[in-house]
Design a protein that fits this description.
The protein has eight helices and twelve strands. The chain is of the alpha/beta class and 223 residues long. It binds calcium ion (CA).
Length: 223
């Protein structure tokens, strides 16, 4: 088994490498996001351990880029519990699993073993609704023949609505699934994001696919 470790904290990277090598794995270590991207493209790895805050290119971007290029090597993302980078976002970018720092080596190894067993995830099926298409694997959205560029949070909200396939999604359901059960902010954040989605998905095409159901929530209606 070959592992790529992309981590800029030299001490941590070395400790992880030494541990994995002692366990019989083949390990390459790089300390920069761009180097990580190049290695991941060129090498045949069984898994990638990817930090988020990296020089060159951050872990989210590395992950998103690999998935957009249809490289499905399992990725375990290392998240720091500083509130700035959240786990939902790590998964949104196409990571297979995440581990919060500081972590125990035993847990890291167990997670990696689970990823090896699972292997590279098969390309997930595209979700279609009317003229809209969402590809959960490459994180791309299109309206007709035009590609629509969404941020990670917009994508995650839109994916949730697309999976509803025209059924109403209540604000509470959206908060729980898109923002997470521990969300303690202002629920009006949903309206703000629905506004962003309309600007990108409906307005340029003069459609009204994203509809508000007064007092209940939101749903998609095919034009
Ligand atoms: Ca870092």
């Amino acid at each position: 088994m070959r592992i790529l470790v992309v981590e800029d904290e030299i001490g941590l990277a070395e400790a992880v490498r030494d541990g994995l090598v002692a366990d019989g794995l083949d390990v390459d270590v790089v300390h920069d996001g761009l180097d990580g991207l190049w290695r991941a493209r060129e090498g045949s790895y069984d898994a990638i351990v990817l930090d988020i805050l990296l020089p060159g290119m951050n872990g989210y971007e590395v992950c998103r880029t690999l998935r957009a290029e249809e490289i499905w090597t399992p990725i375990l993302m290392l998240t720091a519990k500083d509130g700035e980078y959240d786990e939902a976002e790590a998964l949104d970018t196409g990571a297979d699993d995440f581990l919060s720092k500081p972590f125990s080596f035993v847990v890291l190894l167990a997670r990696l073993r689970a990823l090896f067993r699972r292997g590279a995830a098969p390309r997930p099926a595209e979700i279609i609704f009317g003229p809209l298409a969402l590809d959960p694997g490459t994180h791309t959205v299109s309206h007709g023949s035009s590609e629509v560029s969404l941020t990670a949070r917009e994508f995650s909200l839109f994916e949730y609505l697309m999976r509803r396939d025209g059924a109403v999604a209540s604000k509470q359901e959206i908060l729980d699934h898109v923002w997470g059960l521990d969300f303690a902010g202002d629920p009006n954040v949903i309206e703000v994001y629905i506004g962003y989605l309309r600007k990108k998905i409906d307005q340029p095409f003069s459609t009204h696919i994203i509809q508000t159901e007064r007092g209940t929530g939101y749903r998609l209606v095919a034009p």
